[in-house]
Amino acid sequence: MCELLALSCRHPTRLTSSLTALVSHAQGTSRNRDGWGLAFYQGRDVDLYRGTEAADTSGMVQWLEANGPLARLSLGYIRHATQGMIELANTGPFIRELNGRVHCFCHNGNLARLFDDTKTPLGHYRPVGATDSELAFCKLLSAMERLSAPLHALPPLNARLAAVAEMAGVLRRFGPANFLYSDGDALFAHADRRLQPSTGRVEPPGLYRLTCPTQSASELLEKPHSPQFDKGQRVILLASVPLSDGDWRALPRGSIFAVRDGELIAERQI
Known about the structure:
With 270 residues, the chain is of the alpha+beta class. It is built from 5 helices and 15 strands.
């Protein structure tokens, strides 16, 4: 199964040690050697990098570890191909425009027979590749499109969270549905199940969350520029598995929440 990573923070920073830790999980005999992707939000747009090679062999990933863009919201993953060939069209994170904003999505799990689902509308969104993950994204965006908002604006947070929760419930019927989704304003996450190497079973937890205390710089972040920067910084990291020895919280199955600028702003359980 793929591994996910997200960083939300108050002050823009780079993915550094957290990215290095994620990339290390693509080494050697790892199953996650079928590609990688990183998305860095810049306002309403996204700076997107992807590759079909293993992340630990990618010169671009090495460059991004040292020179990646500063951002308040970053998403990424390393891929284990369960549906779709190893090619760029099947490599996330996937992005689409909706209402003048770039939306971004990545998923971990195998949604068996999702392509047979005719009950959940797609609207005008269609997958470019052949993955269940991109199809799930298209279905989610179709639901978001039905929420009315002026150009460049967004529907109320509670309406967006409800749409995410409803789609998470649909996807879980087809298999593990851990995902990260952002509209550039908030990062939404759903924690489900994943293959646990220690047991060989598909079971919770599917996602972990680390909240870095104010006035404390995590070892997973770029060093603060100044004491003032450190004092005002807020950070939340999400990952499929803990990326350090910090106080990572295993999230219960069915946890859905929204994060903005390193702060938890809404949550619910399904």
